[in-house]
Fold Endoribonuclease YbeY.
Amino acid sequence: MSDLIMTEAMERSLEIDNDAFSTIGLEIGVEVRDELWEEDLPHCRALIHRAVLLSYVLGGFSSEASCVEITSISEAELSVVLSNDPDIQKLNLEYRGKGKPTNVLSFSTLDDPAEENLAHQRGVLSLGDIILSRETLICEAKTQSKRLEDHFTHLLVHGVLHLLGYDHLSEDEALEMESLEIEILSRLGIKNPYELDGDRLIEGAIDE
């Protein structure tokens, strides 16, 4: 995608205020479980569209993505869920054994054979779900002296890359994923989220 087309897509996204929208073969669903999101981030849908679109285009599927023949699928879909600490804590405990809230959870379906078969039947590949917690996001943004919009965008980028098969289990994987995040955020006008005044700001994974 050329920079001109990308810029036009970004500009159009500012006017988006829907719970589902589609662009360049990618359908993005948005579910708001906590209405306070729209008070804290009135343009959250536009931010979602821009971050998800650019991450999908620039990230591509990781070399580790095990879903075969995904290139034969012309369309994809994913969902973004705007939730809160109580909800995400339950999910974090159920799926990761951690009884505490976290900033973002990503549930990729690339390794699910049933989803792969369904994708070939429908012609649409389901990438999975990204779930974000409002309270944790706000707290982290304040603690790390970041704009709320920038931190929200960073977590979206991080979540999309997980859905595309990227991970940070090893040092090499973490470096690859982090470098991609920094590149994507730079294209969105957001500085390196892992550094503050030249010093390392975040140690380890952001979705603990």
Summary: Residues 31 and 164 are 20 Å apart (CA to CA). The domain at 3-200 is CATH 3.40.390.30 (Collagenase (Catalytic Domain)). The helical segments are 3-13, 37-40, 44-59, 85-96, 113-122, 134-143, 148-163, 171-187.
